[in-house]
Amino acid sequence: MKLDAILWDYDGTIVNSVPKNIDITKRILSIVAPHLSGDNLPQCLQSEAAYHQVNHAAKNWQELYVKYYGMTEAEMLQAGTMWAEHQLTNTTPVTLFEGMKDTVKRLSDIPHGICSQNAAMNIKGVLSQAKVDTYFKAVIGYDDVSTGGQKPSPEGGVKCLERLFGKPDGKVIMYVGDHEADVKFARNLQLELGQHSTVISVAAAYSGALPDTWQTQPDFVIRSPFELTAICEPYL
């Protein structure tokens, strides 16, 4: 099989966005749920290590907000509507993981795409600033798919492949992500594309994920972006 494209998650996979995400969350909490700010700030928002732990434990952002931050469902829904605005206006620096730029450069003969629950405009800005934007031919953010089509729904993956190829049929795709939901996304994308396509799931463990504990297992685990090159070699 020859690899046709590499699709990526963004937060926790391409970039370490934890400092920015924590700052955004704290600001939103101060507006939507002030009883969870200041001295009552949830423990999991008081350090990057604590945030990593709950972020990888939660099934999705809704569970993260309710189960781990202690928000009500109404507060969670209101917070969700504010996230995009704060992502675009927050100036906390976001950096690529070590080895990411070299890895996509080494694999630049393969088209790269991004399927994320971050805002596409925000992602493109960071990629441009890091001078890696030319490697990513398609960027699908949460605002490019329907509310019910967020990961692990395959909707974003299909749209990303359509931007890359027009028709996504009969392709060999690799998807790299740091959450169990990303593995489920890859499996759902496989089901959506059908038997003539192949979707290979790669778990990125370098941002704190513990793939060994997941019920849905990936095909490969990498503990550094550099390791992806070796995985791709048989498919080149």
Question: What would you say this structure looks like, in words?
Answer:
With 236 residues, this protein is an alpha/beta fold. The chain has 2 domains: 5-16 and 94-235, 3-Layer(aba) Sandwich (Rossmann fold); 18-89. 42% of the residues lie in helices and 14% in strands. The strands form 2 sheets. The protein has a 6-stranded parallel β-sheet with strand order 5-4-1-6-7-8, with helices on both faces. The chain has a two-stranded antiparallel sheet with strand order 2-3. Helix 6 (120-129) links the parallel strand 4 and strand 5 (136-140). The N and C termini lie close together (8 Å).
How would the blueprint of this fold be written?
Blueprint: E1 5-8, E2 15-16, H1 18-32, H2 48-57, H3 61-68, H4 73-89, E3 95-96, H5 100-106, E4 112-115, H6 120-129, E5 136-140, H7 155-165, E6 172-177, H8 180-193, E7 198-204, E8 220-222, H9 227-232
Parallel strand pairs: 1-4, 1-6, 4-5, 6-7, 7-8
Antiparallel strand pairs: 2-3
